[in-house]
Amino acid sequence: MKTRRLGSGERSAPVSAIGLGCMGMSVAYGPADADEARRTLDRAAELGVTFLDTADAYGRGANEELIGHWMRDRGRRADVFLATKFGLRHDAATGRVDTVDTSPRYVPAACDASLRRLGVDRIDLYYAHRRDPATPVEDTVGAMAELVSAGKVAHLGLSEVSPATLRAAHAVHPIAAVQLEYSLFTRDVVEGEMLATCRELGISVVAYSPLGRGMLAGALASRDELTEEDNRRRWPRFSADNIGRNLALVHEVRRLAAEIGVTPAQAALGWLLAQGDDIVPIPGTKRVRYVEENAAAAGTGLTPEQAERLRAAVPGAAVAGARYPEQALRRLGH
């Protein structure tokens, strides 16, 4: 597995060029299967995928506990670059995320709870999952910086913030990475001012949902294949009105991937890797066969011409539907 670095300078950290998003092992994409999840984590480790991404919000801590048990049982802590997040809080009655809390008083409590669930004494990369615009980011990052001083966290990150917020945060303490949705389907979030800001400041982009929540992998043929428990049924790009148009774009990706000699997922991930050494995709999966396919994308080595053909095959204006439901969209970009 090739490696890339998060951040810049002496404080930068090496990670696998392809990471592993672990959310789906516990929530969002149909029923969880803990045994298959552990097999997937085992295979990822065998393939050199060292960068694992979780959050306290995934299954209300269940995903952190899963990763923690796996690291302990397999003796893998030293092999893992561990990222988790805080800031999304759940309503006790409904179980739904109803609050974004990035207040300085909440930061240490959230971190300690994650450390306990993960069974570790240090988190390698700690993100604010979303930002509460009522809390100055300088105050949030100041509290996060105290975790670094205490040895509980090694590197700091933010997720789905604006370029101005990123600048203000970085002025308080170096930010190693910003996590953003980035794929052939979702380019406007990163490309432009945000990417220019990251490169000016030496901040890496961790690309989540790099396969368009699985659609770019080319395996989904219709909305009917999604179970009732699958959150994608409630996301606009998978709606009955939009999914047909988006699958037509995936058909073009599949056609180009066949010409290149890779799978559609590998083409989509290879395209992201070709956008710069400071881009690290973290495709999520809970299946061994998909982690094998995704890890192999690190070796695709697309040419500039191939990458441009893939970009042209998915015009931004042709993607149908917003990337999140309206309520979730309101939490982004602060």
TrEMBL record:
Residues 17-313 form the NADP-dependent oxidoreductase domain. Coiled coil: none annotated. This is Aldo/keto reductase. Keywords: Oxidoreductase. The keyword tRNA processing does not apply. PROSITE patterns: PROKAR_LIPOPROTEIN. GO terms for cellular component: cytoplasm. The keyword Oxidoreductase applies.
